[in-house]
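<purpose> Linking amino acid order to shape
<body> The protein record starts here
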Amino acid sequence: MPGAILRFIERTDQAAVDGEDIGLIARIVYESLALRYRQGIEMIQDAANKEIRRIHIVGGGSKIDLLNKFTASATGLSVIAGPAEATAIGNIMLQAYGCGEVGSLSEIRKAIGDSFSSRIFEPLAGDAWREPYNEFLRISKES
């Protein structure tokens, strides 16, 4: 994967990156994901004509604090991270619904909220993400 990232960087005439610096490669991936989340949220808001006020990140990504911080700052939205085992929890809750143990989506959400912890990440330095986002959009169009 690092090789593919480096080739993309080169193909799109971005500043050269040390391919041996795995921390930098990880940062590039996390920043790119955060910026893509912003792009996706803007597209959804435009299509639905509805404001999105927060992002829920569940599953494995909810355990990556740096990604959650970047996502909050890049989007300007609060990120609620967790639970990490969302697929299993969702399966269990649908079975509970099918058996009549919970009767509605709001009951399912309450049961999950009462049973599993989540962390909240608030946006920081939103202006610092403006230019990288514009560059991200430019590169995305060209590639």
